[in-house]
Amino acid sequence: MKVILQKDVANLGDAGDVKDVADGYARNYLIPKKIVIKFNESSKAAIEQQKHLIKVKKEKRKKISDSVSDKLKELSLVFKAKVGEDGKLFGAVTSIDIAKKLSEAGFEIDKRKIELEQPIRKIGEYTVSVKLDEGIISEVKVTVEQE
Fold first, then answer.
1. How far out from the chain centre does Cα 135 lie?
2. Where in the sequence is the domain holding 88, given as residue range(s)?
3. For each of the chain's 147 residues, which pLDDT tens digit applies?
4. Which residues share a beta bridge with 126?
5. Of 2, 11, 24, 25, which is least packed with CB atoms within 10 Å of its CB?
6. What is the pLDDT of residue 129?
7. In angstroms, rounded to a whole number, what is the distance separating the alpha carbons of residues 94 and 139?
8. Cβ–Cβ under 8 Å, residues 46 and 37
9. Which has the closest alpha carbon to 101: 126, 82, 76?
10. Three-state SS string across the chain, please?
11. Domain endpoint, select from 47, 62, 77
């Protein structure tokens, strides 16, 4: 069955693409969840309209992400923590903690978009990457100090 994707679907395609999928997959999953619509001659105009809207939305998201990226590069987060021997923390600073501090600073960023290889376990200065949008990655300075 030929369908038009309404949303981006992993391993299938991007919104606006015309794809051939199994009839059962389309009828039982994709169409009820409003992920696709059936392809026919009258839906060709809808495809073009949808592609245009998606392009406009992506450009708008990119502009917003660029401005947020510039603000994040200027931002410095400071964490106070209890420290033991050799500057090791009792506990750790995780992406959840960083997301909370960013929220307090006025940035609503999901913890999964904060790219922290391992939790921070020592005092010092760190640079943490934050993935904002497709291809837009910003950096935030994180300083961990002794309480």
1. 10
2. 66-146
3. 998 888 888 888 887 788 899 999 999 999 999 888 888 877 777 777 777 887 888 888 888 888 888 898 999 999 998 998 888 888 899 999 999 999 999 988 889 999 988 999 999 999 999 998 777 889 999 999 988
4. 142
5. 11
6. 92
7. 15
8. yes
9. 76
10. CEEEECCCECCCECCCCEEECCHHHHHHHHCCCCCEEECCHHHHHHHHHHHHHHHHHHHHHHHHHHHHHHHHHHCEEEEEECECHHHEEEEEECHHHHHHHHHHCCCCCCHHHEECCCCEEECEEEEEEEEEECCEEEEEEEEEEEC
11. 62
- Note whether 12 and 82 are same-domain residues: no
The predicted structure's pLDDT at residue 104: 92
Please state, in angstroms and as integers, the Cα–Cα distance from residue 128 to each residue in 76, 100, 108, 117, 146, following that order. Answer: 10, 14, 16, 9, 19
Would you state the pLDDT for residue 132? 86
26, 44, 62 — which closes off a domain? 62
Which position has the token pair 């922290």? 116
